[in-house]
Amino acid sequence: MPSEDTDIEETAGPDAAGAPAGAEADGPETDDPKIAAAVAAAEAAVPGNGEPVRIDSWIWAVRLVKTRSTGATACKGGHVRVNGQNVKPSHLLRVGDEVRLRQEHRERVVVVKRLIRKRVGAPVAAQCYVDNSPPPPPREAVAPAGVRDRGAGRPTKRDRRELERLRGLMGGPGGPGQRGR
Asked: pLDDT tens for residues 63-108?
């Protein structure tokens, strides 16, 4: 009597997805459960019927900011522009919009390729936009001025004045913070 395994192999018909047997799926490899879970989460995160998504929610979902409240604060502070206009956190985003986000010494320029509402894994999130950002500045350009060696002790008044002069806070002789004599 033949085993059930051979019966299944002999009856090669369409699989559960409707594709013929032996044909590969259009999407990514689903043998890995982690990839399959990421794809399922991404599909669940897509709004239905082409509904627009809030800008603060989208920049959080595609991992441009760490939290949604940080995204809302960036919008309120004028650090987020959509198609050249400053926007509020409730601005509705559509596919094809250009989003500019200023972050710590850098500006990110992305074009919306796909709308999602829920935060997904980084590889899936990267597929939701086209990154047109300029390359980040070299580390030397953003290095903090006046870093003291560990264990050097408290800075003297002279050290503090030199650091402020380097940072441009004093504005030279007679600048703010100095009294006229």
From this structure: 999 999 999 999 999 999 999 999 999 999 999 999 999 988 789 9
**What are the backbone dihedrals phi and psi of residue 80, each rounded to the nearest 5 degrees, phi first?**
-120, 130
Place of tokens 């709308």: 115
Read off the tokens for 116: 């999602």
Task: For 9-50, list the strands marked E by DSSP.
Answer: none
Per-residue DSSP letter, 50: G
pTM above 0.70, yes or no: no
- SS3 call for 58: helix
* 39-61 pLDDT, tens digit each: 676 666 677 666 789 999 999 99
CA pair distance 24, 155, nearest whole angstrom: 66
